[in-house]
Amino acid sequence: MTRILEKTRSLKWVYDDVGEVIEVILEYDDFKILLQKVARETDWETLPRHLQDVVDAVLMEEASGENSEILPLRDLLRETGEAP
User: Fold this and answer.
1) Is residue 25 part of a domain?
2) In whole angstroms, what is the distance from residue 73 CA to residue 59 CA?
3) What residue ranges in 1-84 does DSSP mark as E strands?
4) Residue 59 in contact with residue 73, Cβ under 8 Å?
5) What is the mean pLDDT of residues 33-45?
6) What percent of the chain has pLDDT over 90?
7) CB-hemisphere CA count at 13 Å for 9?
8) What's the number of domains the chain is made of?
9) By residue range, what is the domain housing residue 68?
């Protein structure tokens, strides 16, 4: 049985019955910061497709706040020949 034993700032640490951390729950703003860091510091081609999709979604959300045209990154990469 898992349980949340500790909350620090916006993080929630989830432990199993033997006290091992099994997951960390982030607030959405912290999750977006993490994804932005992943997008900046990771080779796009090495990211699993589901992470590429979620990074795309966060970047599109940011672009929509800037009142600019929203295009999925995958489509832009295809246009430049950098993605299948």
Assistant:
1) no
2) 8
3) 3-8, 11-15, 21-25
4) yes
5) 86
6) 7
7) 6
8) 1
9) 42-84
